[in-house]
Amino acid sequence: MTSNSQTIIQEIRQEFEMLLDFVSGDQAQQATADQIERGLFKLLLALGAKLLLLFFAMRSDICSREAISTAAGDTLAYERDTKRNYYSIFGKLPIWRPYFYKPGLGGEIPLDAALALGEDSYSDLLREISEYLGVYNVYHKTGDILARLLGLKVSTGAIESNMAEDAADVESYYAQKPAPDPAEEAEILVVQADGKGVPLVLEAPPEPPVRLGKGQKRGRKKEAMVTSVYTIAAQVRTPQSVVDSFFQQSPTASARQQSPSRSRPQHKQIWATLAGKDAALTRLADQVAPRDGEHIGHRVALCDGYEPLQRRMSKYFPDFTLILDFIHADEYLWEVANALLGEQHPQRLEWMAEYTLKILSSQTDQVIATFQQMAQDQQYKAKQRAQLAKTATYFQRNLPYMDYATYLKRGWPIASGVIEGACRHFVKDRCELSGMRWTQLGVENLLRLRAVAENGDWDDYHQFRKRQRHRRLYDQPYPQQLPLEMQAIENNSSFESRPDAATSQGLDPIPAPDDQAGYYHLPLAV
Question: How confident is the model over 207-216, as a mean pLDDT?
Fold first, then answer.
């Protein structure tokens, strides 16, 4: 052990004594809980920095300075110790490593491989925390959170750059990820697709005007194609039960008794890309193929009435039953109700319930005939007749995909709530904040990492990413985690090993963490 390591150890012991005095000394007797908690957090960060610095110093101490052999059989002599900076959650730290070199061959730093360091200065933990925050918050707010919480200054550019680098392996991760166990799947395989516009910056913007004209915008929108695949258990419903639920009407007692618990999607996977419909559906088909099999009894494809999307869904999923999203169909009924009765008419809801029941009972052809006849009746205003004709035409074109009575009898889903929610939450809520404009590459990187987070693959993906990076940089397998390190990482609380620590003092026991709680899936909650 070098004198430098000994010095660091002495400083750590002094700082630990300071920690003890901070919580038990004379001044602590007059302090508030908030003062102690805030001060303790800062002191622990400083202590963590010293401990991590000691770790690096000791690893450098034990690293051999003897000449090394390269993979090609060449010999590199020890040249000097060289420094690199390491930005950790505890702050900026120096790492000194032995550097081996031979003129004409270049140099190597074996300790970088042993420590599994990346190409830049940011630690993997800091990257993962900032990126997890970044997929849900604007980048400058992510920097503000890190500054307030950890006292770190991470620029918006650094966050965006790290996300771009770490999103590069998402496609290969999902390509190698095995399909869910058939025993964990339900019998209905469902695919959904829809589009959502994302505001982009102009690639070659003209000279910006002093003031925008009416209708002018500083950017343009490009469609992000959002896709989803999952399995779900059959849930048989009647048209009337759906109407009762949809319009919040009070069901009868017998209907309540017969109503089953709501089925939930199993192993739902979502994705979004601006590369176009064909690229999105090709990838979706690749995801679907390994999940299909004898355990799947039904195959359903849900989308809205947009013809180009319907044609592509039929092309890429020919064995699936294409269903028009019932919510989109019902929106056309609402437009007719508003045109005929007005939004404040007391009988509008009753009219909607009546015609919705007809649609769900697969009597859409009768509704079409009624609307077409009304559209020819001159007693109605021109706008009313136009809306009747528009809705009738829409229903006529989508009639092959509107056999809702059969779908409900088989227990199939008829509404694309999963994909509608994904378009809103997955894309809109992050990409369409006020004044926000994206480059296509920037939003693709964000959406890839956002998909990893939303699909529940965050930790697994970053383990994969680190292994892939290690092979690229050092052409060797990623170092195995030692049992002691795994124990420290997996140990959520020292109180778990001392369950009587609280009860022995007459206090309520501290509950064990709930593995299902979202908090404990955050990178900081280890």
Answer: 52
Tell me the DSSP string of 384-401.
HHHHHHHHHHHHHHHGGG
147 vs 114: CA distance, rounded Å: 30
Report the distance separating Cα 199 and Cα 432, nearest Å: 7
CA nearest to 283, candidates 269, 304, 297: 269
Largest pairwise CA distance in the chain: 99
What residues pair up with 526 in beta bridges, in sequence order?
none
- Give the separation between CA 408 and CA 171, rounded to whole angstroms: 36
Instruction: Look at residues 523, 511, 431, 457 and name the one whose alpha carbon lies nearest to residue 221.
Output: 431
Residue 512 identity (one-letter amino acid): A
- DSSP 3-state assignment of 342? coil
Q: What is the pLDDT of residues 151-195, one digit of tens each?
A: 999 999 999 999 999 999 999 999 999 999 999 999 999 999 998
Query: Is 73 exposed, middle or buried, given 0-12, 13-18 or 19+ CB atoms closer than 10 A?
Result: exposed
Return the percent helix, strand and coil in the chain, to nearest 5: 55, 15, 30
Stated pTM of the model: 0.84
CA separation for the pair 478, 476 (Å, rounded): 7
Q: What is d(CA 221, CA 216) in angstroms, rounded to the nearest whole number? A: 13
**522 vs 286, more confident:** 286
